Backbone:
């Protein structure tokens, strides 16, 4: 058995008060599955392969979430007839830019002896192909692409024209558009299957950077280093030390908290005068900024996302928070106090506005976000044939709290709503876009409630209660693990997630040791034999 | 009726569009109906879906009386369709029998695929376990057209056009200008015009051949479920390759086909409310010519999507929120449903405006108009809302209301539609939703 190589984090964990014993988990992983590149991965990969200034035409085949993540949804989606057209168009536009006079020197390392030079064409295709397909091409693949380039060159007259079609072919191939990670028999464990060295390069790269492997990672793959824990750990550290890991983790949190939905957020502008089409982008930036600082700059305790006083606002958000903007342009740091009524993630416009209706707040939607996304609880869908109408505001039921009382007293509703509404009621002092309010329809808002028995009187205290909720760290470990493997875990991976949660606890809930532990974990490196 | 000089149009689109070379007509590719189409006989049958999200209010929806002609009258919510009643068959009292596990999802999967959602689907993930009816039909009647099917929508969504049981969807186009560019681009050849020959098209075909070869080599190593996913990609590549091949053929003459005007930029939201009518009618202008020019014979149009929270003009909250929260008789929800029916009427009239043979484009269509639930507030999936517009070229009754008294499976309607398109299938759906008999009462 391959031992879980957590030496780095265990060393740090040793200084923790009571490190939890982390046994080597038994893992029975899922069979390998194709992942279609997400739209972000396609764009990142093309820019890394051909240059930041390459213009990629849109739209591309849309992403779809599964189990709360787009990275996981990539295991179910495929490519429609419409998508084939989009990828074809994009491939030719990208290839034409790559082979334009000012760029082609970066990709053609030989000087063609004549317009048709099959040696130089083959060499260029081999070098480019290894990067585009994230593995070396076999001779048959090189020959087929070379034949295309020669035919085109003969008709159109130039070497580059032929290369353009060869590159466009590689970009339309399932070998590029899908991450092909099939695994291979593991010689150290008979009957088991491991991901190959090149496949591990791809897995690590998309996990940490959300893009195609760089040349160092491909070299590590070629050397076979990524078949061993030490080699994987070394590359994981290198990737995480790079500023590009910040972009990678921003993508993860954007998926986990569904911050990409902020682009399409609709609020009634006649009710919310602070709403504008750009608010969503500002709100996302605040949240990702806070997370990036916490994870990378402070190497802080993940649970502090609920209680941190520090946040980052631009003028748009400052107006909603009623604080002074720290800078005229862009984002600046502000320290919130209890007088601001908000702190941490649950005080952010992103979470408050996204988990609300277009005309009002919603204790249920906000509570559901906390319960399912932050605590990984399950909420079954509402039963059929239940009258869901809320009473209109009236003399006896003024606030939303009064009006949703039915949710918590009618046994048909309460089973599920008790898991959501009490948490959301703690955020009722924030309206549908996250502005603080003391009253609703003239009545004072009572934001006191409890989370699983732990009582609080307002949103400020709610943050502290959630910080210490035992489900918070395990939920992050599970979600990050899903993100890494690009799949919803199977029962045979539960021990793996338990083990990662223990590593996380031992590292005082710092995210980086958890990321490194996932990279070397069995679940990330092993597959079941595919059922052909 | 649209009148445009074909000669002017042809000059416009063919000027500079690659090299044009005369070739003998290869009408065999078009089922031999090229000449027949010109005089209006043997027009192709077309299948369509007009879909909206969040259901209806059943007591304001189900028509009064049953049978044909004057024996039945429209109820309040369908009133906007009154002038089109002679083109409609309404079915009520039938149910989705495949369970109601995922609100809005189970109904959508039940009516469109005849089966329950995939077991992989979580409470908020829609994954059909079987192909949707438009793709079942497109597999046959979409084989020979430039596009096997077209998917459109007035709002962006993932759509509900499923190819197979792996969650592979055909995303709808919600931008009128992008839809126009997709169909009426430099590769569009006016029926009756001379074909385009461009050497680059031959190279693009070689590249697509190479991509298919990559796919075949990869396929052997994949799990059974990934094979199905890769096949979906392969089918799309092959369809594109065949589409390029057909550019060198001489398409049949279709009198009703004219180049639609290029739509303007997409209409922006006004006060947080999308201009649904402007978007939908611009899309329909393009879509109806895609049909009249025989670029496709199958379409799915999602006016709105399940669980959509669109803010309609004159209402106080998003559609989905209102269906649940609005108390009493739900006057605002009622107003929204009537607004959607007004849009459906407009859509059908746009098809009806296109004269074709002795009738109109609408006559050759069978359009399934439906939603994801019956009553939005409670997510019911019995007494399912179903309208069929157009007779599918004379195969289906018109001006008819069929009311089931025994909670029959909606799959029977689907099987009638599949067979009205000439497919001659013996069954539709799976599990509790599987039917082996069509709804003969609505068939001619």
Residues:
């Amino acid at each position: 058995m391959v031992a879980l190589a957590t030496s780095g984090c265990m060393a740090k964990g040793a200084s923790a008060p009571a490190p939890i014993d982390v046994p080597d988990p038994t893992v029975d992983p899922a069979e390998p599955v194709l992942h279609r590149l997400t739209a972000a991965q396609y764009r990142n990969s093309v820019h890394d392969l051909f240059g930041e200034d390459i213009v990629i035409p849109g739209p591309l085949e849309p992403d779809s979430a599964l189990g709360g993540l787009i990275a996981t949804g990539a295991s179910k989606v495929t490519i429609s007839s419409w998508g084939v057209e989009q990828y074809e168009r994009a491939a030719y536009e990208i290839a034409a830019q790559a082979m334009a006079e000012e760029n082609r020197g970066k990709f053609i390392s030989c000087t063609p002896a004549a317009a048709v030079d099959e040696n130089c064409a083959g060499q260029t295709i081999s070098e480019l192909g290894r990067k585009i397909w994230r593995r070396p091409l076999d001779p048959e693949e090189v020959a087929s692409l070379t034949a295309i380039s020669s035919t085109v060159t003969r008709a159109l007259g130039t070497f580059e024209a032929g290369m353009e079609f060869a590159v466009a072919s590689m970009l339309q191939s399932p070998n590029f558009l899908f991450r092909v990670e099939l695994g291979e028999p593991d010689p150290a464990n008979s009957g088991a299957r491991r991901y190959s060295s090149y496949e591990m390069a791809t897995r690590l790269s998309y996990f940490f950077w959300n893009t195609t492997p760089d040349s160092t990672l491909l070299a590590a793959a070629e050397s076979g280093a990524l078949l061993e824990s030490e080699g994987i750990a070394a590359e994981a550290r290198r990737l995480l030390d790079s500023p590009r890991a910040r972009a990678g983790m921003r993508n993860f949190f954007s998926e986990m908290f569904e911050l990409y939905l902020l682009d399409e957020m609709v609020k009634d502008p006649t009710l919310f005068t602070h709403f504008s089409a750009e608010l969503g982008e500002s709100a996302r930036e605040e949240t990702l900024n806070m997370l990036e600082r916490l994870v990378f700059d402070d190497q802080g305790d993940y649970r502090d996302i609920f209680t941190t006083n520090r946040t980052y606002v631009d003028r748009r958000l400052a107006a909603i928070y009623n604080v002074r903007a720290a800078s005229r342009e862009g984002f600046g740091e502000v320290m919130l106090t209890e007088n601001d009524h908000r702190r941490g993630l649950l005080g952010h416009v992103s979470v408050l506005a996204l988990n609300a209706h277009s005309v009002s707040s919603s204790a249920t939607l906000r509570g559901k976000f906390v319960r399912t996304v932050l605590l990984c609880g399950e909420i079954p869908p509402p039963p059929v044939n239940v009258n869901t109408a809320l009473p209109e505001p009236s003399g006896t039921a003024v606030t939303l709290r009064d009006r949703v009382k039915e949710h918590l007293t009618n046994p048909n509703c309460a089973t599920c709503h008790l898991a959501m509404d009490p948490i959301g009621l703690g955020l009722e002092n924030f309206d549908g876009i996250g502005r603080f309010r003391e009253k609703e329809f003239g009545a004072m808002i009572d934001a006191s409630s409890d989370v699983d028995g732990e009582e609080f009187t307002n949103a400020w205290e709610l943050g502290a209660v959630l910080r210490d909720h035992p489900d918070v760290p395990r939920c992050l470990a599970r979600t990050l693990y899903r993100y890494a493997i690009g799949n919803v875990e199977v029962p045979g991976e539960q021990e793996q997630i338990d083990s990662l949660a223990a590593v996380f606890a031992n590292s005082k809930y710092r995210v980086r040791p958890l990321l490194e532990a996932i990279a070397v974990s069995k679940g990330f490196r092993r597959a079941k034999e595919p059922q052909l | 009726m649209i009148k445009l000089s074909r000669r002017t149009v042809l000059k416009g689109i063919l000027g500079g569009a690659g090299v044009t070379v005369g070739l003998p007509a290869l009408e065999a590719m078009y089922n031999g109906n090229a000449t027949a189409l010109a005089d209006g006989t043997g027009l192709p049958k077309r299948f369509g879906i007009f879909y909206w999200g969040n259901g209806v209010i059943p007591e304001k929806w189900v028509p009064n009386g049953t049978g044909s002609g004057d024996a039945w009258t429209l109820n309040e919510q369908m009133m906007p369709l009154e002038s089109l009643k002679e083109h409609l068959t309404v079915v009520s009292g039938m149910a989705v029998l495949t369970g109601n596990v995922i609100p809005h999802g189970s109904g959508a999967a039940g009516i469109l695929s005849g089966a329950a959602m995939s077991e992989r689907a979580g409470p908020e993930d829609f994954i059909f376990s079987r192909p949707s009816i438009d793709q079942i039909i497109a597999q046959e009647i979409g084989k020979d057209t430039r596009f096997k099917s077209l998917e459109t929508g007035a709002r962006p969504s993932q759509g509900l056009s499923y190819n197979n049981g792996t969650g592979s969807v055909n995303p709808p186009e919600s931008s009128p200008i992008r839809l126009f560019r997709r169909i009426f681009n430099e590769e569009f050849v006016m029926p009756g015009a001379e074909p385009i020959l461009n050497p680059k098209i031959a190279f693009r075909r070689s590249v697509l051949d190479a991509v298919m070869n990559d796919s075949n080599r990869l396929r052997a190593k994949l799990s059974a479920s990934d094979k199905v996913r890769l096949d979906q990609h392969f089918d799309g590549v092959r369809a594109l390759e065949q589409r390029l091949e057909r550019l060198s053929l001489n398409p049949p003459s279709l009198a009703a086909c004219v180049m639609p005007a290029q739509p303007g930029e997409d209409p922006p939201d006004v006060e947080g409310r999308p201009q649904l009518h402007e978007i939908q009618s611009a899309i329909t202008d393009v879509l109806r010519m895609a049909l009249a020019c025989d670029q496709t014979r199958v379409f799915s149009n999602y006016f709105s999507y399940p669980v959509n929270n669109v803010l309609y003009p004159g209402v106080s909250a998003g559609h989905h929120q209102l269906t649940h929260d609005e108390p009493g008789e739900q006057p605002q929800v009622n107003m929204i449903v009537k607004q959607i029916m007004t849009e459906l009427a407009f859509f059908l009239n746009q098809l009806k405006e296109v004269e074709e043979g002795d009738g109109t484009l609408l006559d050759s269509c069978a359009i399934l108009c439906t939603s994801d639930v019956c009553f939005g507030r409670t997510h019911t999936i019995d007494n399912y809302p179903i309208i069929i517009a157009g007779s599918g070229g004379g195969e289906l009754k018109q001006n008819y209301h069929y009311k089931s008294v025994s909670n029959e499976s909606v799959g029977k309607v689907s099987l009638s539609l599949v067979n009205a398109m000439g497919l001659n299938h013996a069954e539709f759906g799976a599990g509790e939703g599987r039917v082996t008999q069509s709804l003969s009462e609505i068939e001619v």
